[in-house]
Amino acid sequence: MPAKKYIAVVGGAGYIGSHMVRMLLDHGYSPVVFDNLRTGHRRFVPGGVPFVKGNLDRPTDIQRLFERYPTRAVMHFAAASIVPESVRNPLLYYHNNVSACIHLAQVMIDFKIREIVFSSTAAVYGHPKKVPIPETARLAPVNAYGHTKRMIEQILEDVAFAHHLRYVFLRYFNVAGAHPSGKIGEEHRPETHLVPNILKSLKRSKNRFFLFGDDYPTRDGTCIRDYIHVQDLCAAHLLALRHLDNKKDSDVFNLGSGKGYTVRQVIDMVEQVTGQPVQYTVKPGREGDPVKLVASSRKARDVLGWMPTHSLKDMIASAWQWEQNRSA
Ligand code: UFG
Questions:
Q1: Which fold has domain 194-225+258-326?
Q2: Is the pTM higher than 0.90?
Q3: Rg (CA), the chain
Q4: Ligand 1 within 6 A of 173 CB?
Q5: Ligand 1 centre and the CA of 180: distance in Å?
């Protein structure tokens, strides 16, 4: 049996996974990408990085990955992650997220791969009673997406206990921004996220921007979110991997900046960065949207030594660079 050297980046052709692959390379790791390319992009995988096209719902595909590329740890980014879509089509989410993770965990056990960094979400907290939200807050998701992520955390906790697997769950808040190279960034079809949707409306006037809800109980009536740069997020994954490599216990961390911005403040920042006015139409609030999500990331700072270094302005500037570079 050859030495296990690969870090399997499941969903490595997607927005966050593709940034992670580059960061792993920059730090001397050997990533292998596993992706079904349903929402990921083959061109986001750097040349020279092994790529396995496969589906998590087919265990034989996962077996093929681990047979060809002896793997010591998995980073799992492959999930459906759009809150309103999960409200409309919950079974897609239970299938894509929960069933898929059961297959992945089973094949990991079969191949004696015992480290996983799992992309969880602030959506596990639902409508939190207090913000900033600590990791110990009650888990009470309010949409199918959040439920699936909470279920996966539970499944992996139980599997960890039974099979000596160790995990780090990273609960993301709102990820934005793009790689400094300008070669990769956020590209979903359809796009539902705030920052790319505002920027797309500046690029083409036919891409109208809708602001969902301006009568929430916040300072300007729009929802508050905690935005984190994709590069800071990936830096936290690297520290999580080191945490597991150093034989530390399984753990869970929030990843956010600790600062909340309203949708209108994000619009203002876009206007400042791009020098263009943002036109928008106000629509009713979306189903399942919590009013305010802001992280306490103190634990990630204390335990992992993680410190986000990018501001909202940096996120928007890099996302704007990407938006202008890409052809779509
Ligand atoms: N919004 C708009 N117009 C748009 C898009 C978004 O007004 O075109 C508003 C939303 O209503 C919300 C805020 O901008 O108030 C942020 O919405 P996003 O769709 O960008 O992000 P979400 O907060 O819905 O969800 C994101 C991820 C989830 C994750 C969550 C954690 O998609 O996976 O952040 O905070 F769980």
A1: UDP-galactose 4-epimerase; domain 1 (3.90.25)
A2: yes
A3: 19
A4: yes
A5: 23
